[in-house]
Here is the input.
Amino acid sequence: MAFNLKKLLGGSDASSEDEYYTLSVEEANREEASEGSKMILLEPRAYSESQQIADYLKKRNTVVVNLKRVTPDQGKRIIDFVSGCLYAIGGTMQKLGDGIFLCAPKNINVQGKMTDEDEPKRGRTKNISEDF
Here is the structure.
């Protein structure tokens, strides 16, 4: 005597197919980005916090990083790590001020440049690596 749980719960014995649909990679990325990208402000105090920055970027969040609380050596290492992450995901990095960087994933379009405050007449833009 076989006990059939489906009959007991009111289901049918006929095999039912699960409903599913597929998305292309572009559609999935667009859907994920439309859920609401965030802008995250971070002030790392050690190189070990670089992974957290990378995790936010992988989730397609924009990150503003303030490196004023780390030593210049740690700041350079953080920038190197985050630059590698941004390269891998097709993102960009832009310097906003002394030790402050905007890190944006591929889905964020950043326009414009910040000029060096020390030399406003010439409008010289600094290379990111000049600070560290």
